[in-house]
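This is your field. Pick holes in the following sequence-structure pair:
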Amino acid sequence: MYEKYLELKKINKNALYLFKSGKFYIFLDEDAITINKYTTLKLINHSKEVLKCGFPDNALDKYLSIFENINLNVKLADEIYLGKSDLERYLDKISKLNINELKPIESLNILSKLKDLL
């Protein structure tokens, strides 16, 4: 996993990469340190040299929303390796929404984000 992290950081050093690890999503190394500055996620050792922080996989949507609200450029590493574009990932997210529960401002935000991705 750490090797994938290093590969991705070479491609885009400004993105924060989120990895699926069992029933958790985790950030590694410098990304974990950055996330820790903005959230209450606890830093722990992934190995002797590498730190990590994370959350249970059932909280993914909650945390992605938090990261988006504070303008953090978080990418799901597994989706990158599956070849999904940002637009495809966002469309997947939209397809899971209950449009009857959306507030008008949320709808406008979705349209704005879609426009940016096109």
User: Anything to note?
Assistant: The mean pLDDT is 87.
